[in-house]
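Researcher: Next entry in the queue.
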Amino acid sequence: MLTEDNYIERIHAFTKQDWEPLLALIPEIEKTEIFGEEVRPEQVEPGVFTFPNWKEGDVVSKFFEIVYSMPIIIKFEWSAWDEGRRIANDLNFDYDTIDIPTKCKLITAIVRNDRFCEGALISAFESGFIVKILKAIKKQLDAQ
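Model: Structure for this entry, 144 residues:
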């Protein structure tokens, strides 16, 4: 896992080839209509019910695996990152105005938030947030 002390240097050291598995998901994301589904509680025996949860679609699962294996998940206080919250809540934010390490911090915040708010990652796919970030990363890499 990357840390606040090394993430910028390590992310800048990635080659275009290192990014390819993640960027190859863009077409798949764009053609995906359902990114996950809510699994309703069910009774497993009298008086005992399962909790509702979310089942991720294939592209969401692939994304999750890739961001951890690259790695681009950064160990930092994502829940206290006000700039990230502001960016994520701005539907018109121009992702071309931030560098790739900051984009990775946004991805980290969404992925980590999903552990505490199940379905957050699926929602980020449904809203287009993830594909916007990936396209901005691709655009920046293509310009190098």
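Model: Strands lie at 2-3, 36-39, 43-45, 48-49, 53-56, 74-75.
Researcher: Noted, moving on.
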